[in-house]
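As promised in the previous annual report, we have extended the structural survey to additional targets. Below is the entry for RNA pseudouridylate synthase.
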Amino acid sequence: MSHRPAPLPQRHGLDPARLKLPAEGPWTTIRDHLAERLSRLPAGRLDEMLAEGRIAGENGPVTADTPFRPGAFVWFHRDLPDEVPVPFPIGVVHRDEHLVVADKPHFLATIPRGQHVLETALVRLRRDLGLPELSPAHRLDRATAGLLLFVTRREYRGRHQTLFRDRRVTKEYEAIARHDPHLDFPVTVRSRIVKDRGSLTAREVAGPVNAETRVELLEHADGRGRYRLVPATGRTHQLRVHMSHLGIPILGDRFYPTVVDAPLDDFRRPLQLLAKTLEFTDPVTGKRRHFESKLTLGAWESYADWSGGDEAGTASRPG
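The corresponding structure token record, generated without further manual editing, is:
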């Protein structure tokens, strides 16, 4: 069953949060319940939101005196966190009636979560392209640059998400890492990867294989290699874990093999991992689609610039 339309418009490209009130309880007013449910709000903030008309029910704004209605819905916009602007543009590789393919820069999250809300690919593109229903068919790590597939309307989302779920999308990545002349390529890494809830990193454990990556060495120079990574599965941090497994962690990796703490405004030495190509049969048109990122990896183009931490070290556009 689809959700009823929200009585509040989007704000900054974000839909309002929706809460369903409990079927029973001791509250006289909706405010009484929200004061308990939204207890993390700063003192007085709930009453400010009510006075400003920032909380709405099915019949209009909720006031401090609106009676509690069991099972009713209310909508409101959450206060946004203070965010450090990500100083890199997001490119559009392709746009048509139902698809947008974007080139996400390093350090930009795919969707709002935690401390990253406005500074996400989804919110930026909704705003810049004027597409309020835009939604991602898959995700990339905040640290990874490259191709992201979005659908322009909600009715297209399920079919395209199913492509990724059923592994009917061919994906290739590019990475820069140390060159080890003792390793033979191509090589296929197979292991079991798990990521515990609340943990920043994933880990390899004994047990049935659930992650597989083919690694090819494209070229090498000055002790660095340029690698093609072709994942057969899609575990969290799989490519980063498997490159570390080989003893050649991806340059700029702040998680593997060890966690390196860095502030959110540190945009130096980005992870040298790029989602390079996407290929699939479009479930809407039936046509074969092939997209290629226009970004390049800075540590291969100029290691001195990348390691020095200036903007030339990010995934950048050629020319």
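The chain has a mean pLDDT of 91. The radius of gyration is 23 Å. These points will be discussed at the next consortium meeting with the crystallography subgroup.
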